Amino acid sequence: MLGYIIKRILSLIPVLFVVSIAIFLIIHLTPGDPAAAILGLEASEQQIQELNETMGLNLPIYQQYIHWVSGVLQGDFGDSYFMNEPVTDAIFNHLGPTVSLALLAEIAALILALPIGILAAYRRGSFSDKSLMVISLCGMAIPSFLLGLLLMLAFGVSLQWLPVAGYKPLSAGLWNHLRYLILPAISLGAFQAALVARMTRSSMLEVLDRNYIKTARSKGVKEYKVVIKHAFRNAFLPILTVIGQSFGALVTGAVVVETIFNLPGLGQLIMNSIERRDFAVIQGVVLFVTLIYVFINLIVDLLYGVIDPRVRLGRK
């Protein structure tokens, strides 16, 4: 198992190297002078030159990359020009709302999606199966920002059950924390719930016709044990992949939803940084989010090896 873990971790090094180059080049090879964009139109030539020297933008591009990567390897993502603080501090100050939103959205999606997918597969071809799949298709078709606006109008403005925007930290109480996240979590998790439900149904259908399922039924095993213990357990690997990808998508794709609901998370941080041309923060946030996504996929790969030993042994 240790060899499998080391192998998976080492395989991430070239991925992160290529991603770091892509992030750096996208930021630094965009047209225009970064220092002039940061300071604005009224900046003098001397101010632009001084900022270029301060930020190291007058160095050759490869030296800038080496300096940035060297800092990243030491946990230093640079400093924010506008916020006058290290990028790492800015990231961790905004990380809490994003993680809370992603966790709540993922939990809600799984609570809804897994039973729907299992039920639809068990009753395949029936009216309930078709109805549930139509609902899941609608969940995939409605954009998260549109669903968020509709939920805001219905439950925040008309019924006034939940706040339409803002954020309360966990220190303000669990309910106060959650009530500000319920609407954005639903709007963000609806697509993921639909995706997981459809994958669950597809995986369950492949397993329910297997011989060992028929054997279990012929032995008189109770139906719910056949469905959950035998069928769902063996159908779980592809579902786990989608769950891992969906959680990564929730963390990395919350920009629009956080903006709509005014959540002070990573999405709002990067949007503000783009407007202010705060390149150090943009680089740092994009790289940090990429690291989260890669780490989640690593966890999924390791869980593959735990659930199915054939994966880590290289067998099918």
Automatic annotation (TrEMBL):
<keyword id="KW-0813">Transport</keyword>
<keyword id="KW-1133">Transmembrane helix</keyword>
<dbReference type="Pfam" id="PF19300">
    <property type="entry name" value="BPD_transp_1_N"/>
</dbReference>
<dbReference type="InterPro" id="IPR035906">
    <property type="entry name" value="MetI-like_sf"/>
</dbReference>
<dbReference type="InterPro" id="IPR000515">
    <property type="entry name" value="MetI-like"/>
</dbReference>
<feature type="transmembrane region" description="Helical">
    <location>
        <begin position="281"/>
        <end position="307"/>
    </location>
</feature>
<dbReference type="GO" id="GO:0055085">
    <property type="term" value="P:transmembrane transport"/>
</dbReference>
<keyword id="KW-0812">Transmembrane</keyword>
<feature type="transmembrane region" description="Helical">
    <location>
        <begin position="9"/>
        <end position="29"/>
    </location>
</feature>
<feature type="transmembrane region" description="Helical">
    <location>
        <begin position="134"/>
        <end position="157"/>
    </location>
</feature>
<feature type="domain" description="ABC transmembrane type-1">
    <location>
        <begin position="95"/>
        <end position="304"/>
    </location>
</feature>
<feature type="transmembrane region" description="Helical">
    <location>
        <begin position="235"/>
        <end position="261"/>
    </location>
</feature>
<feature type="transmembrane region" description="Helical">
    <location>
        <begin position="101"/>
        <end position="122"/>
    </location>
</feature>
<protein>
    <submittedName>
        <fullName>Peptide/nickel transport system permease protein</fullName>
    </submittedName>
</protein>
<feature type="transmembrane region" description="Helical">
    <location>
        <begin position="177"/>
        <end position="197"/>
    </location>
</feature>
<dbReference type="Pfam" id="PF00528">
    <property type="entry name" value="BPD_transp_1"/>
</dbReference>
<keyword id="KW-1003">Cell membrane</keyword>
<dbReference type="InterPro" id="IPR045621">
    <property type="entry name" value="BPD_transp_1_N"/>
</dbReference>
<comment type="similarity">
    <text>Belongs to the binding-protein-dependent transport system permease family.</text>
</comment>
<keyword id="KW-0472">Membrane</keyword>
<dbReference type="GO" id="GO:0005886">
    <property type="term" value="C:plasma membrane"/>
</dbReference>
